[in-house]
Amino acid sequence: MGLSRVRAVFFDLDNTLIDTAGASRRGMLEVIKLLQSKYHYKEEAEIICDKVQVKLSKECFHPYNTCITDLRTSHWEEAIQETKGGAANRKLAEECYFLWKSTRLQHMTLAEDVKAMLTELRKEVRLLLLTNGDRQTQREKIEACACQSYFDAVVVGGEQTEEKPAPSIFYYCCNLLGVQPGDCVMVGDTLETDIQGGLNAGLKATVWINKNGIVPLKSSPVPHYMVSSVLELPALLQSIDCKVSMST
């Protein structure tokens, strides 16, 4: 790590600043209730939601071929047909998708302690939000959690030529803030994108948010630091800056 103080922090959004996984689960529970109460599904309701979850985890989205709404409605349509058989039911699939999506967005909030942390940090360093994903989906989340005002800049991977872990998107972020890679710290929950990307771009440090105490694979990228909550970041940044002071 270079001998300069931290000048900028790049934050991932999903499951770093907001509980996207938890919000998605709340959405699935609402769909299960809908299918059981309105359409009298029994255990099939949970099977359908499990199938959709798998499809979401394997999703390959190409904005030139389709829109995210069509793609995700198709996930529901396929899951319903695979579970219940019979003809495809696009109308029911749309009802499930929009209920899941709207519930999910309602539960995507920035916690008060996270807001306070960002506000304090921004007095000392530049802050940038760097999130992978489809433009429409990520912009809807950013609006839902009202986080834009806490950052000096917001960069959505789906609006750029390359996403994390490509170094180019990190260099773009550095240029936006007028800083060098060696001035910056990347904070995120995904080793393969957030941490690998920070390493690829030669950032000063990478911080892995490991909420669930996961033991990474031996082949996984190795972060400079690991914390269990994003709220541990201010103390960690202080210790990084202390090391710089002692070195100089």
Automatic annotation (TrEMBL):
Cofactor(s), by name: Mg(2+)
Keyword Thylakoid: no
This protein's pathway: Amino-sugar metabolism; N-acetylneuraminate biosynthesis
Keyword Thylakoid set for record: no
TM region(s), chain numbering: none
Gene Ontology MF terms in the entry: N-acylneuraminate-9-phosphatase activity
Pfam families per the UniProt record, alphabetical: Hydrolase
GO biological process, one term: CMP-N-acetylneuraminate biosynthetic process
Keywords carried by this UniProt record: Carbohydrate metabolism, Hydrolase, Magnesium
Enzymatic reactions: N-glycoloylneuraminate 9-phosphate + H2O = N-glycoloylneuraminate + phosphate; N-acetylneuraminate 9-phosphate + H2O = N-acetylneuraminate + phosphate
CDD domains: HAD_Neu5Ac-Pase_like
UniProt-listed Enzyme Commission number(s): 3.1.3.29
EC supergroup of this enzyme: hydrolase
Ranges in coiled-coil conformation: none
InterPro entries referenced in this protein's UniProt entry, alphabetically: HAD-like_hydrolase, HAD-like_sf, HAD-SF_hydro_IA, HAD-SF_hydro_IA_CTE7, HAD_sf
Family: Belongs to the HAD-like hydrolase superfamily. NANP family.
Protein name per UniProt: N-acylneuraminate-9-phosphatase
